[in-house]
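Deliverable D2.4 — example input (structure tokens):
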């Protein structure tokens, strides 16, 4: 595969089945002043997959994520969420889209003045009208879902380890039971064991909750272990999108250096070992 626009069919028992693109970007251009960061970029993210989005530092990975979320304005192109063009969506439709998406920002971005349980309840307070007791029960469910101890609920962010902050932020991203979760560098700052445990958690949540995951990452281990598909950003657009085997077979210099360079040498890239 050489572009972000890939086939929309899966084959099961010889039959072709269409895949639903929950996020579809077409010819998206984003710039700041005279500098273009993204130009004519196209990408699909399909229901139920974990997509790893990679690229050089400063290439625009987080810019695209924020553009999809509506936090950065695009200059041209179209973005569809759940089959609806965001530019043509009504205010109510846009609100409904927002409620179907959860975000884990880089470094967690917890509110320092709120406890863990209060942080998790922020989306509930913003979008829903629920009794306090019900919000407490729902937040505790999310705390348990991400593997935090129950006594973490009333701790402040500064009392948490780096791994616990990530899990608390993930619990907040799951507060409204979203269809799509955006993860911005979710394993950065974690030790290898903590990062592996977080990857395993993301995979389990995808399987149990039917999530679609859009993961911006530099972590090769995450790409190899948990991502179904990878999209590589370069030259202001998606250079290639496909499986890890597609990445290993690609001859683009940056892709080759990233996936088959010195830092990747210790990873056994044979399909038999990965499967």
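Example output (designed residues):
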């Amino acid at each position: 595969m050489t572009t972000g626009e890939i086939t929309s069919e899966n084959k099961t028992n010889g039959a072709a089945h269409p895949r639903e693109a929950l996020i579809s970007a077409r010819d998206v251009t984003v710039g700041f002043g005279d500098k273009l960061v993204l130009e004519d970029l196209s990408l699909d993210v399909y229901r139920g997959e974990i997509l790893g989005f990679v690229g050089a530092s400063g290439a625009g990975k987080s810019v695209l994520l924020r553009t999809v979320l509506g936090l950065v304005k695009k200059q041209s192109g179209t973005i569809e969420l759940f089959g609806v063009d965001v530019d043509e969506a009504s205010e109510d439709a846009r609100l409904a889209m927002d409620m179907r998406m959860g975000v884990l920002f880089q470094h967690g971005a917890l509110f320092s003045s709120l406890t863990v349980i209060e942080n998790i309840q922020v989306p509930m307070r913003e979008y829903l009208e629920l009794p306090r007791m019900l919000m407490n029960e729902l937040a505790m469910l999310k705390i348990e879902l991400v593997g935090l101890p129950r006594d973490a609920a009333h701790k402040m962010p500064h009392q948490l380890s780096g791994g616990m902050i990530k899990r608390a932020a993930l619990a907040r991203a799951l507060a409204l039971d979203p269809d799509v979760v955006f993860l911005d560098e979710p394993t950065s700052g974690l030790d290898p064991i903590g990062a592996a445990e977080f990857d395993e958690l993301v995979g389990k949540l995808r399987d149990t909750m039917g999530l679609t995951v859009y993961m911006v990452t530099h972590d090769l281990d995450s790409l190899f272990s948990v991502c179904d598909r990878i999209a590589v950003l370069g030259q202001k657009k998606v250079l290639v999108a496909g499986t890890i085997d597609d990445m290993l077979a690609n001859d683009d210099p940056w892709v080759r250096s990233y996936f088959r360079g010195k830092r990747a040498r210790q990873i056994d890239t044979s399909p038999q070992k990965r499967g």
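Residues 37 and 60 are 6 Å apart (CA to CA).
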